[in-house]
Amino acid sequence: MKSPHCGDNDNWQDLEKALGYSFRDKTLLVNAMTHTSFANECPQAACPHNERLEFLGDAVLDLVVSEHLMEALPTSKEGELSRIRADVVAMSSLAGLASKLGLGPSLLLGKGEFGSGGREKPGLLANALEALFGAVFVDGGYEAAKSVLLPLVVPILRQASADAGQDYKSRLQEILQASRKELPVYKVTGTSGPDHDPVYLVEVLIGDRVYGTGEGRTKKTAEQNAAQATLQLLDKAP
User: Which one of 53, 129, 196, 236 has the fewest beta carbons within 10 angstroms of its own beta carbon?
Assistant: First the structure.
């Protein structure tokens, strides 16, 4: 690969393949992959940074996800749809998608950002992915953006939808309140995996005793899994 400070990047073609989309206007791809640090340090490259495309991509992502949820969950209420959408557009979800696409090596970064591990920073990856979505929209229109986005986000939507329909935390709280026991406390005890795609470990405490534990790529999912494990233990108790 060429120098990260050069106005060219051998990884862009690989990114297009991973994305399943070939840009007609390659300058849009370059724009989407250009961080402000590179644009500021290399004005001679005449390449604008990606913040405007990020702004657009954020709106495109919201629209594609919202439209899909309206069609896939016709009986769900607005609050539930909003919670599911929030899981998809969360920084951790977008950073995880960016990592799976191999987006990091495609970024153009300034020397300082490159030296501080910018290619692996969750916020930077999430923002660049949104910029990439915006670039696809400008290059090919809404249907092109939709065809790129849905294969990426539908697995997250399905998991989020399943989590929304299985509120083990509320069920556990109701059972403990009915039996007049202490309410559960959820404690994050550790994480594993890379910084941009962590897996959280959560345990449930009732009083001073640890009951179920759970893992998840978000704290919310880990808490739900821990609550589910606790409910299973309580069901087996004499």
Answer: 236
What is the value of pTM for the model shown?
A: 0.69
The predicted structure's pLDDT at residue 138: 98
Mean pLDDT across the chain, nearest whole number?
Answer: 86
- Tokens 């604008």 identify what position? 48
Rg (CA), the chain: 21
Domain architecture of the chain: domains with CATH: 12-165 (1.10.1520.10), 168-236 (3.30.160.20)
Residue 68, token pair as written in the block: 């899909």
Q: Residue 180, by phi and psi: left (phi above 0), alpha (psi -120 to 50) or beta?
A: left
Residues assigned a catalytic role:
58, 130
In this predicted structure, the answer to whether residue 188 has a pLDDT above a threshold of 60 is yes
Count of alpha carbons within 13 angstroms of residue 210, beta-carbon side: 8
Q: What are phi and psi of 215, to 5 degrees?
A: -120, 155
Q: Has residue 4 got a pLDDT over 80?
A: no
